[in-house]
Amino acid sequence: MARVHEGKLDGKGLKAALVVSRFNSFITSKLLEGAADCLLRHGVKDEDMDVFMVPGAWEIPATAAGLAGSGGFDLVICLGAVIRGETPHFDQVAGETARGIGRVGMEAKVPVIYGIVTADTVEQAVDRAGAKGGNRGFDAAMTGLEMVSLYRKIAGLGKQASGKGKP
To answer: Which 3 state secondary structure label does DSSP give 83?
Structure first.
């Protein structure tokens, strides 16, 4: 049987950066509450969470890139809400935000987690921020915790393969 590697939900000793859009704050505030709740429940101390408020979803990727590259955080969680309107603006903002966060995540040495709610209606966004469909902020924080642990396991495998780590 192949060896299976997966992360654990242990936040003890971790420092987390949360990048949160102020636009649609009636949704993003709930996403932030959910993410902070998850991190606290899994051992991250309140003083080890830093929240960086940005004007809108568009500004999230660049901010996440700066934080991920700073060396001061073990993970970066990106939280926002883009709700469809009557113009193509939704498609542009949602698509470019997703691409930007993905690009930052591919280049960063720490997990950069996508926690953006994209919805056709306000009701859908409310549901995904804790009403009916769970809380996407909580989910994003759980993903972040698991990925920090997995990244560390992967780094350890690299050390073993190079002969620098324990066999």
So the answer is: strand
Domain ranges of the chain: 16-153
Task: Give the tens place of pLDDT for each residue, 75-108.
Answer: 999 999 999 987 778 888 999 999 999 999 999 9
The correct CATH number of 16-153 out of 3.10.290.10, 3.40.720.10, 1.10.357.10, 3.40.50.960 is 3.40.50.960
Q: Name the band, by pLDDT with cuts 50, 70 and 90, for residue 167.
A: very low
What average pLDDT does the structure give for the chain? 93
Residue whose C-alpha is closest to residue 45's, from 73, 20, 67, 14: 14
Q: Which two tokens stand for residue 152?
A: 């560390």
Catalytic residue annotation:
89
Q: How far is CA 9 from CA 6, 12, 13, in A?
A: 10, 9, 12
Q: 134: left (phi > 0), else alpha (psi -120 to 50), else beta?
A: left
| Cβ pair 81, 94 in contact under 8 A | no
**Please, what is the angle between helix 60-69 and helix 89-107, to 10°?**
10
What amino acid is encoded at 48 in this protein?
D
Angle between helices 136-162 and 25-41 (to 10 degrees): 50
Q: Per-residue pLDDT tens for 67-81?
A: 999 999 999 999 999
